[in-house]
């Protein structure tokens, strides 16, 4: 097995170190975010309607969004780089499946999944290393399967690194991320941009895509 890239190791170590505090911080994180919940609901409806298979939340952290997707009726499991995060997710949601792994090398058969959610997880990938992630998403999704991305949007600027509180991360122009997805075989279904709340720094971007 190939050695993980330095940024993967560094990201896993950084989230291991703050996992307990992070899990406490995000425990009710979706409650005040009706727009964010709405696009998760739209994703769930599309996947449930197509009946294309299981859903993976990639970069699931302590499992909050995974559990929310379960509550929306999806057959879902979570994957995360951080072993400590996965232990916390398993403890909080013992009825769900959680695995340690990297979203660029999934232990999933070709076309096995009906949906993927990457909720603020591709943000930690250096831009030059991101295309293989989309190729892996395309590999594991069935034709017609859906991909939902949430990320920090760059507000008219090109891709820019910013001082994320846990690990180095990047803000993306929504058109730039959509173009990477198109190059990997995805068609855009819709997008949602949300202005930052009072306690947030940056605009939030969401892309809903379908594998062609």
Concise account of the structure shown:
The chain is an alpha/beta fold and 212 residues long.
Q: Keywords for this structure?
A:
212 residues; alpha/beta; Rossmann fold; seven-stranded mixed beta sheet; two-stranded antiparallel ribbon; 6 helices; 36% helix; globular
Description:
This protein has 212 residues and is an alpha/beta fold. It has a single domain, classed as 3-Layer(aba) Sandwich (Rossmann fold), CATH 3.40.50.150. The chain contains six helices and nine strands. It has helices at residues 6-26, 34-50, 64-71, 83-92, 131-140, 174-183; strands at 54-58, 76-80, 97-100, 113-119, 141-152, 160-162, 169-171, 186-194, 204-211. The strands form two sheets. The protein has a seven-stranded mixed β-sheet with strand order 3-2-1-4-5-9-8, sandwiched between helices. Strand 4 (113-119), helix 5 and strand 5 form a beta-alpha-beta unit. Helix 1 (6-26) packs parallel to helix 4 (83-92). The longest helix is centred in the first third of the chain and has 21 residues, at 6-26. The protein is globular, with a radius of gyration of 16 Å. The two termini are 30 Å apart.
């Amino acid at each position: 097995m190939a050695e993980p890239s330095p940024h993967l190791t560094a990201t896993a170590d950084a989230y291991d170190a703050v996992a307990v505090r992070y899990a406490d911080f995000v425990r009710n994180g979706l409650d005040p975010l009706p727009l964010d919940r709405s696009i998760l609901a739209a994703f769930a409806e599309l996947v449930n309607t197509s009946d294309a298979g299981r859903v993976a939340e990639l970069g699931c952290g302590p499992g909050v969004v995974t559990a929310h997707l379960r509550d929306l009726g999806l057959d879902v499991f979570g994957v995360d780089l951080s072993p400590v995060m996965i232990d916390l997710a398993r403890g909080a949601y013992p009825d769900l499946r959680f695995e340690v792994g990297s979203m660029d090398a999934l232990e999933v058969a070709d076309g096995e999944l009906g949906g993927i959610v990457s909720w603020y997880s591709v943000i930690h990938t250096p831009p030059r290393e991101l295309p293989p992630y989309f190729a892996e998403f395309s590999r594991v999704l069935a034709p017609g399967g859906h991909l939902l991305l949430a990320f920090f949007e760059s507000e008219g600027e090109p891709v820019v690194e910013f001082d994320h509180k846990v690990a180095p991360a990047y803000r993306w122009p929504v058109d730039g991320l959509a173009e990477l997805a198109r190059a990997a075989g995805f068609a855009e279904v819709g997008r949602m941009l949300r202005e930052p709340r009072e306690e947030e720094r940056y605009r939030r971007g969401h892309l809903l895509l379908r594998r062609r």
